[in-house]
Every structure is written in C-alpha cells, then in structure tokens.
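FAQ
Q: What does a multi-component entry look like?
A: The components come first, one per line:
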Amino acid sequence: MSTSAVEVIARQSRVAAGQLSSTSETLRNLALSNMAEALESVRRQVLEVNAREVAKARQNGQTPAMVRRLTIDDKVFQYMLDRLRKVARRPDPLNRVLQGHTNPAGLRVYKKSAPLGVIGIIYESRPNVTTDAAGVCIKSGNAVILRGGSEALQSNALLTDAMIKGAVDAGLPQHAIQIIRMPGHEAVDALLKMDGYVDVLIPRGGKGLIKRIAGGTRIPVIKHYDGICHLYLAEDADPTQAVDLAVNSKCQSIQVCNALETLLVDKHCAKPLLPLLHKAFSANAVELRGCEATLKILPGITRATEDDWHSEYLAPILAVKIVDGLDQAIAHINHYGSGHTDAIVTQNLKMAQQFEQRVDSASVLINASTRLSGGGDYGLGSVVGISTDKLHARGPVGPDELTTYKWVAYGNGHLRH
Amino acid sequence: MSTSAVEVIARQSRVAAGQLSSTSETLRNLALSNMAEALESVRRQVLEVNAREVAKARQNGQTPAMVRRLTIDDKVFQYMLDRLRKVARRPDPLNRVLQGHTNPAGLRVYKKSAPLGVIGIIYESRPNVTTDAAGVCIKSGNAVILRGGSEALQSNALLTDAMIKGAVDAGLPQHAIQIIRMPGHEAVDALLKMDGYVDVLIPRGGKGLIKRIAGGTRIPVIKHYDGICHLYLAEDADPTQAVDLAVNSKCQSIQVCNALETLLVDKHCAKPLLPLLHKAFSANAVELRGCEATLKILPGITRATEDDWHSEYLAPILAVKIVDGLDQAIAHINHYGSGHTDAIVTQNLKMAQQFEQRVDSASVLINASTRLSGGGDYGLGSVVGISTDKLHARGPVGPDELTTYKWVAYGNGHLRH
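Then the predicted structure of the entire assembly, as tokens:
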C-alpha cells in the first residue's frame, strides 16, 4: 500500500467526516447497534481466524502476555459487543450547548460540541481496540481510520468489514470506518503525513510506538506515556484499608498503566504499617524496594535508588518511601509521577481536599484503588485510550473527548461598531 | 540571558503554578484588581516610556501599522485596565464540576476544571498583550512567562513590574507573573526547550513567528494561523442586510483576522446583488476580484485566480465568487477556508442550521458581521489570543480555555474486583 493508497483512504475519510457532522443521534446509535449485530453474525469466523493468528503468534515465539492480548475468545468477543451497545446508550456527545448568552446588542451566542473530524488510531495486537475505537468514533460523529498490528491483520479486517456493513446499512457514509490493511511501517509513515485530512492521531501501544508517532507527524497526537502511580498512606490511614488498597492497587493487574508503582507512607504511621504491608506484599510475591528510612523498619528489603522513583515497573516490584506529611507526599508525586493516577488513604477531609487540589494528575482518588481510574468506573461507556496530556483530553478518552466545539452566533443584521 | 537564566525563570514558574493551583477565587480576583490599581499608579511613567519607544520605532522606519500597535495612549491604557477588571468579574474558571456520577459500587466520581500550570506567551509589539495575558492567566490560576517584542521591552517591563507588585500584595506567589527581559532570539530559543516546566506556549504575531515556535518545541502550542473568512449571501438574502453585513465584515477593520476575505454570492441573487455590492465596496475603496460568473455581471473588475481563494489579504481587496446553492458554499468554505470565522445571510431556518452544522469553523455566524467573532462579543471578558486549532481551545482563548480538568474519585476503601 503506497502513500497514494493511504491518501485515497484519508481523503475518503475527510469526505465522510463532512457527512457525519450533521448526522442525528438516532442514526449514529442505530449504526452502533447494527455494528454489534453485524459482528454477532461473524462471531464464529472471527474466532476461527483469530485462533489461527494466535497459533501463528505462538509459533513465532511471541510472549504469553502478547498472545493473551491478541486472543479473542467468546468472553472477549462478548465484551466487545457489550461495549458497542453500551456506548450507543450513552448521551449524545454532539450538539451539547456548553455555554451561551445574549449580548447587550441582542446577538445570541453559544458554544456547542462538534466532531473533531477524522481520527487515526494506530495500535498494537489487541483486536478489541478495533471495535472500541470504531464505536467511540462513530458515537462522536467522527470518521475513523484504523491501523492495527500485523499479527492481528485478518481478525481486524473481518471485524472492520462487519462494522462497515452494519454502519452503512444504518445509513452512515461508506467511508465512516476504514482500515489500512497492509502490514509494515510504510503505511503508518504515509498516514503520519496526512495532516491535510486527519485531525488527530491516537497511538495505543508501547512507549516506543507513541514516541515514534508523536515525533514523526504534524497531526496533533493524543498521547499516553507512563503510568507511574502513587498511593499515599496518610498519618491517620486505617491500617486494614491501607493494606487492602495498596495490595489491590498493585496486584489486581500488574501490567496495566493504573497499577501502583510507588507507595508513600507517612512517617507517623510507618512503624506499625510497614510490617503489615510487607507481609501482605510477600504473600502476593511482590518485591519491595525501600528508601533509607523504610530499610530501618524493614531491614531485609532491597534499597531503592533514584531510578526506582522514576520507574513504571509493570512487574511485581513496588518502591516504598517514607514521607514527612502531605506536602512532601504531594511534592514527590508531582516531581516523580507521570500525571496518570494517584491516590491517598485518609479520613481527614482537609487532607483529602488538599491532595485532590494540589496533585497534578489526570486521576486523583481518595480511599479508592488506583485500579479504579478509567473509562469503566468513570461511566464513559467505552474508551479509545487514556491520555497523559494536559491539553484537550486528560485521562480516559471516550466519546466526549473526541469532540471539539464551535461558537455559533445568531444575529439580525448585527454589525460591529 | 543564557539558557540557564531562562531555566531559572521556568523552574520558578513551575513552583508558583503548584501554589496557584489551590488559590481561592477571592484571592485571584483580589490580585487582578490590585494589578489594575498598581498599573493605574504607573500610568504616567508607562505613557512616557512608551512614547520614547514609539519615537524610536518611528526613527527606525517601522511601518505606521506597527507603530500604531506599539502605542499606548490614554485610551489604550484605560482599555487595558478595564479588561483586567472585567476578567476579575467573570465566573471562576477553576473547580467547576464538569460532570459526575456515583457508580453502582458507591464510588463518587467527578471531573473538575483545574489550571494548566505554566503558560508561556511569546508576542510581538502590542504591549496590551502583557496585561491581557497576565490577567487571563492569573484568573485561571496559571503561572505566566511573558516574552514581548524587543521594541516594547521597557513598556512591558514597567507594566509587568506593576502587575507583580499588585499580585504579590494580594498574596499570590512572587513568580506567578514573570517576564523575560532580554531581547533577541536566544531567550526565546531557550524557552522553547523548557518542556519540563512549561505546559503550553501561545505565540501571538505573524505566521512566521507562529510556525517557528510550533516547529521548534515539544511544548504544546496553541496556534493561530490564517483568518480566511467567508460570508455567504444565500438566495433569499435581504439586499440591504447583505450589503451592510458584507461591508461591515470587510471594512470595519481591514487588517484583523476576522475581517472578510471572500464573499460567496448565490447564483440566484447575484444579478441584483452584485451591482449593489460593487457600488458599496467602491465607496469604501475596496477592490473586487471575481470568478468567471461574477465577471459576467461586473465586467469591469479583476479576474480572481486560484490564489485569491487561498488569500488572507488583510488589505482592501475582496475575492467574490458566485456559488450554486448552500452545498457549494459550504464545500468552498471547508476547502479554502482556515476554520476561523464564516457567516451566512439568510432568513431560511433550515439553511441557517445546515450552515451552522456543516461549516467546520471555530466561529459560525448567522446574519451577523464576521467582525463580531471574538472574546468581547462572546462574553469572555478578556482573551490571550485566538486559536485556529481544533484540539483543546478553538476560537477565542479566555480563562476557561487555559484550564485542563482532572478526574476525582472519593471511595471508602473501594477496590477493583
């Protein structure tokens, strides 16, 4: 697939985006439900094709983690359909009047949400991104260009063809959903040059992929880098709740971006708490790496280095630091954190509010597991990714985050004097 | 001023941003009113210093337009103070709860607005940007680093020193407002490298400046490129209103970004309307450049080339094209326009709504002059610039647009299962 083939796709998407911008909520929701139905009808084929791709990935010596991400079983497939139907039931992200007023001269002004236009999604392995991304984009009236990993090429093509059929049957334009079918870097490189047609790119995958995309295009990129997440156990933290939240934040799923990486323990509760935490983490086979002060209480554990505070392990390792109060905890988080998800355990309202206000992160949780940050528990229905940027979208990227807005003014011959 | 001097400023701003994030609305508004008072007390000095800079600019052979932009007279000064006071009276852009819900497990989740952090403003000539930008940034709880043009160095420094005094007297951190005092490219180049400290850059000036900034930094940039603005006179446009709106859009101020550049006239009303328009524009010394069909009705005018449809003249020239209905008008606007400001004259509601929905621009006006797009008539109080981006801020950039948001969740030991 040459640059010009990608350009044809990009241009077709631009035209489709123009048509999508004035589609009704009813039409877009019908398309989503049709897409789920059309997928339902190819369930067996998708599972077969995917099984072959999974077998091939195993033969090629892919890691078990990668094979797991690639796999579509009945449960995953059902989950994909459920999310399409869930996003269909969400309120319309378009044409929301965000603010408005009538000026003294009688000009009626309002600001309303509108689609971004054409969204490019570049992702690795997980075929569920194919349906999640298409669902979120169609919900928000955007045309989408999908570009999945080569190891899932056929699964993705099959899923996309079914969704296109469902969408077109509902009355959406033919090119509202498109997929780039050729493997290899050339097609991605071509897509990066389509700044005349594509409004935003969302890469999903390793940091390497994201850096390559962001550094190689003039198209705005919604990025997700690190998830160096913290939990701060304040002086008054309830010991049982503290241990439960720390363990759940770290262990519920080790390899995900909102898993805990650094535990901050207030110096006033470190002595009673650290042995409890050590015991609980040992039972979960998590290695602790502690600061100087932590080592005095838990002499058996590894000493943490400066690198540990900067680390997103995505592994059963946890950095532990004793801090002197809220200010030091917040300073540590804002310095070493990645602005993804950070949490506190406290019953002190003022402390909770200070933490909420001053921690500069996409998600700030009080007495809740870091694992609860994300589209599901935040009620977004379905998301296309998570952003660690501060501009435009921050945190989970659902249908609302794929909108821009426009200012509209109705006058009656109003002039500027 | 070396890189390290700029780095000191950037680091100080980052610390100030941390402190600003939890300031109250009352404190920030007090600071704004103190800033206006402090400016009031240096009015005479500012006018004197500015007069010397204006004289120097004249001696250096600067254009009258540039000299006019540089000048602070009593009226301009009053306007600067008024806008600081106006922005103080606006609702607080921070801590607005944007959405929220309680999930089935009882986790209370909400999304609330928060400051972006550190804003860098790089601008040319106009010293009013110094006070406008500082006002909008302080209102929204952001630390600001100002970097004005060298021709206004002393005016800007005087204005900034007064504002810092006012802000600090109110209790804001010392480095909430800072200015880079050294002329020349080196300081700007150093600022572009401060992606560890600066959250967003807003360049204000010519397209060359904006391209240089956007192309030379990893810091997100809120950009303003062209203002190729259109007015479409629909078939049913009232002739008097059509002529008045066209003339006001083009002539009220020729050199500004929301001035009219291309007039689209429906073929069904071109015959009666074009001679009226020609007469009105001739009276205002505006040259018309017409398409083939226009020339048949106005044989005396210049023929427009492809370049004309792409032109932001900022001069007394207007491109005129006859189009066959709404679809063609919208297609022309979305193809040749810059997504800034576009308007229609019609009494047909369906046509107005189609135009509103399908024109992909920051501002869409119905029966109103293109000159009415902007912070003033949109009720933003004061703005720091205008964005032609679609992500994050679109159109006028006021205090709301200098915020991000964070997700906050309050639980009671909530875990993920």
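Q: Is there any commentary attached?
A: Sometimes. For this entry: Chain A has a mean pLDDT of 95.
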